[in-house]
Amino acid sequence: MEIKSAEFVMSNSDVAKCPKNLLPEYAFIGRSNVGKSSLINMLTNRKSLAKTSGRPGKTQLINHFLINKNWHLVDLPGYGYARVSKSSKKTFQKFITDYFNQREQLVSAFVLVDIRHKPQPIDLDFMAWMGENGIPFSIIFTKADKLKPQAILNHVADYSAVLLETWEAMPNYFITSSSKEVGKDQLLKYIHDLNEN
Ligand code: GTP
Ligand code: MG
């Protein structure tokens, strides 16, 4: 699929105020700094459509982007950022869980994990929560440019071995690098096919 247009629509912390139309949407979630916003820029061929930062905690709101005038990409804040206060963590959890539980337009979420790290409880817990709540998701391994090809295969195999301890099957997954534009065609094709169904 070719991205012909990508426009920022709105940011907010209340799912009730998100766009009311029924365009299909896809949301990116994962630990702070994993590369959610960078991936949106890579997919849309834009350097700073979504704001990125080397410091975790950059994205704080639900951000809607309209793609090709007929579907949405959604950039979400990251979880697991230690410097956020307890009360703002709670508010955050609430608006993110509300988003996933209430957003009927959501076709699929993408849970991003850094390919370099071993499976972390926070990500496994989040995926378990998605499963319990019936929210479809795929996994996106990010920052693949940081590892050699064999190490990528090993890390994915380790990840799936851990997931298969609790899941019946490995979820659909993608290997990406925003800096090297890896995984772009596969992800866009996946979204395109879902949009057609
Ligand atoms: P929050 O909004 O804070 O939750 O973070 P985020 O998940 O949106 O991460 P963001 O896209 O802001 O990227 C965080 C850092 O990782 C930035 O310094 C990016 O340049 C870097 N980064 C993102 N993707 C990649 C990648 O594919 N490869 C490499 N090497 N660095 C990346
Ligand atoms: Mg971000």
Automatic annotation (TrEMBL):
PROSITE patterns: G_ENGB (PS51706). Its cofactor is Mg(2+). Residues 22-197 form the EngB-type G domain. CDD domains: YihA_EngB. Keywords: Cell cycle, Cell division, GTP-binding, Magnesium, Metal-binding, Nucleotide-binding, Septation. Coiled coil: none annotated. Pfam families: MMR_HSR1 (PF01926). GO terms for molecular function: GTP binding; metal ion binding. It comes from the Bacteria. Belongs to the TRAFAC class TrmE-Era-EngA-EngB-Septin-like GTPase superfamily. EngB GTPase family. HAMAP family: GTPase_EngB (MF_00321). NCBIfam families: GTPase_YsxC. PANTHER family: ENGB-TYPE G DOMAIN-CONTAINING PROTEIN, MSS1/TRME-RELATED GTP-BINDING PROTEIN. Necessary for normal cell division and for the maintenance of normal septation. This is Probable GTP-binding protein EngB.
